[in-house]
């Protein structure tokens, strides 16, 4: 499988070989892969070359290293399309995963100027601040903080927010959730993320802000979320824009 006469760099050939094994399920999430020495001996290549291939797969998030123990196959990322406006609960159920939430707090606070501006309400107006760890099959995926005007929505209890907020607002309150604006930025895991998501401080994370609106244009929620960079991949479908 390694062809030393090929113009394709050897590290790249090894990288492709390991990738094929991952795709074929020969190497599964949690499996340890052979050591650098083992690869080097089996294919009669240098350890430096093996390291280069493995580093590249670690950087892509397909493998991860555990200090003093070895290199392992990472869990598959959750691929999330960015076409439709859906809830975490819906997204997980669609994938056959069980969604749960761990409620950190639910309180009514006075809107600060940023929250008031985003929700088109006055500063110091009452807003629900709901902070939840969102889990898929018991594994923490994201830390979400929702701000929802308490004048617009009421009845957000611990029981309600421990399940689906969207389901409550649509099915119980009859609100027409229509569209949202979402932005995604990369950030490093903070001490809080380390604590709640069990991710090492400094690891790459995705910071997402969603502003959701009702059909009549009223801002419904401002959501600040931190998603695990090692477990999430967002997909976008694009159509070619032609110059006029
Ligand atoms: C998603 C949304 C969040 C929304 C939540 C409702 C992002 C990136 N995602 O997690 O804005 O509040 O779904 O979920 O912001 P729920 O209905 O399961 O409570």
**Ligands in the structure?**
2-acetamido-2-deoxy-6-O-phosphono-alpha-D-glucopyranose
The CATH superfamily of the largest domain is identified as Chorismate lyase-like
Strand order of the largest sheet: 4-5-6-9-8-7
Beta-strand proportion: 25-35%
Domain count: 2
User: Runs with pLDDT <50, length 5+?
Assistant: none
Helix/strand-derived class?
alpha+beta
What's the main sheet like? 6 strands, antiparallel
Quote the distance from N terminus to C terminus.
50 Å
Q: What's the gyration radius in Å?
A: 23 Å
- CATH class category label of the largest domain: Alpha Beta
User: Which bin fits the share of residues in helices?
Assistant: 25-40%
What is the overall pLDDT average? 95
Q: Please, how many helices?
A: 8
CATH architecture of the largest domain: 3-Layer(aba) Sandwich
- Using DSSP, what is the number of strands? 10
User: Could you please say which CATH topology of the largest domain applies here?
Assistant: Chorismate lyase
The backbone outline, from C-alpha atoms, is elongated
H and E string: HHHEEEHEHEEHHEHEEE
Protein name: HTH-type transcriptional repressor NagR
Organism: Sutcliffiella rhizosphaerae
Domain HTH gntR-type: 8-76
InterPro entries: Bact_HTH_transcr_reg, Chorismate_lyase_/UTRA_dom_sf, Tscrpt_reg_HTH_GntR, UTRA, WH-like_DNA-bd_sf, WH_DNA-bd_sf
Task: List the defining traits of the structure above.
six-stranded antiparallel beta sheet, two-stranded antiparallel ribbon, alpha+beta, 10 strands, Arc Repressor Mutant, subunit A, binds 2-acetamido-2-deoxy-6-O-phosphono-alpha-D-glucopyranose, 2 domains, Chorismate lyase
């Amino acid at each position: 499988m390694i062809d030393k006469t090929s113009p394709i760099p050897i590290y790249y050939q090894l990288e492709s070989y390991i990738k094929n094994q991952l795709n074929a399920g020969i190497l599964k999430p949690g499996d340890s892969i052979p050591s650098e020495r083992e690869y080097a001996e089996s294919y009669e290549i240098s350890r430096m070359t093996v390291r280069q291939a493995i580093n590249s797969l670690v950087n892509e998030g397909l493998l991860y290293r555990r200090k003093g123990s070895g290199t392992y196959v990472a869990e598959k990322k959750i691929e999330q399309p960015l076409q439709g406006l859906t809830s975490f609960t819906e997204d997980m159920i669609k994938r056959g995963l069980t969604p749960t939430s761990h409620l950190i707090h639910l309180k009514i606070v006075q809107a600060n100027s940023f929250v008031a501006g985003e929700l088109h309400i006055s500063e110091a107006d009452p807003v629900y601040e709901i902070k939840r760890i969102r889990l898929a099959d018991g594994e923490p995926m994201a830390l979400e903080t929702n701000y929802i005007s308490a004048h617009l929505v009421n009845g957000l209890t611990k029981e309600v927010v421990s399940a689906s907020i969207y389901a409550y607002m649509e099915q119980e309150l009859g609100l027409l959730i229509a569209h949202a604006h979402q932005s995604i930025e990369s950030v490093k895991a903070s001490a809080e993320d380390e604590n709640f998501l069990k991710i090492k401080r400094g690891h790459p994370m995705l910071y997402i802000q969603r502003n959701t609106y009702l059909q009549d244009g009223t801002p419904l929620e401002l959501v600040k979320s931190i998603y695990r960079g090692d477990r999430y991949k967002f997909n976008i479908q694009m159509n070619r824009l032609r110059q006029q």
